[in-house]
Amino acid sequence: AAALAAADAARFAARQRGGNRVHEYQPGDDAIAQRLGELQWIQEIQRAFDTQRFRLYAQRIVPLSERAEGEPMVEVFLRMLSERGEPVPTAAFIAAAERYRTIVTIDRWVVNRSLAELGSGARLRPPTFSVNLSGQSLGDETFLEHVLAELDASGVDPRRLCFEITETAAIANLASALRFISSLRALGCRFVLDDFGSGFSSFSYLRNLPVDFLKIDASFAHQLAADPIQRALVEAIQQIGKVLGMKTIAEGIEDEETLEVVRGLGIDYGQGFVLHRPAPIGDLS
Q1: Per CATH, is 53-283 categorized as 1.10.10.10?
Q2: I need a labelling partner for 269 at 20 to 30 A (CA). Which of 63, 100, 156, 224 fits?
């Protein structure tokens, strides 16, 4: 089994280098060690599906301005538990899932579970769920069909479902992103452009991306109270969003001082530990 895993990792390493290449495994090969580690994560992801060790968590997105709607809204997060029931760092297995194209399967599971939660009837007034999607799912023709079918079967009001896509993924898959967004927005779903501002080239795309919210990259919240340049950049994003009819969300707010600056800049929604810490989705009242 170890020899087969090493051979598979060597094959993948050769393919990543492009062209007709051969990669020979040698003990101590860092590239192969990385691939073997990722393959182990892929196996662990499959075991987690088989033993039902994935969980949904949620963090509240809190209205801050008069423009913000008063309805409850949460961002949905995926958590994987180890066999001992301990949380596994998300970044570790998501990176492997993206490299080995397992991320679309994960995104499908998150959408399905989110719709099941929204349609369970456990809450008199369910919040809007904001679900993260990968760039690979945006570019997968069958993923849109899956979401449309599951949404129809669930009976959930589409206005209760929001999708978060990163600006990098949207720009890299622009035609697919536009088709995905327009199909679901026509039903009432809404969209968040996540990590906005991490690459300012995206400003030129905003006119053509029919999203409802701009989520300002969390890096802008760091030192926001002390750095006038950070404040000016966040204020510029807020003004552009206002002109384009998009509401703004500031994430990564971890203290009261930053929260007050965000309020003062007119940002519509806030998200971060100072407002609410992620919790199991079933614990939301």
Answers
A1: no
A2: 156
